[in-house]
Amino acid sequence: MEVWRSIIWGAILSFLLEDLGSSNGTFHNRQKVSSHVTLSAEDQIQLGQTIIMEYIAPLLSDETHTEQRPIIKQTVLKRPSPVAKRC
Hints:
By secondary structure, the protein is mostly beta strands. 0% of the residues lie in helices and 39% in strands.
């Protein structure tokens, strides 16, 4: 069973990704997260083997523009099981 323990948290004008001891790891742009990383636009986030997301940087709101786009665009993919090799 795969257990995901990751968090995305906001700081001043940025968001951070941190692995909290997940069973199959948290990955940022295909690199395993060992502490925390700052997210940038278009970064890829992977939780274990089955969930991949893309970080979309939030728009800064001003007086003339109030529309916000979502921070995370989620894509769920299930990787195929490894194929047994014949001897």
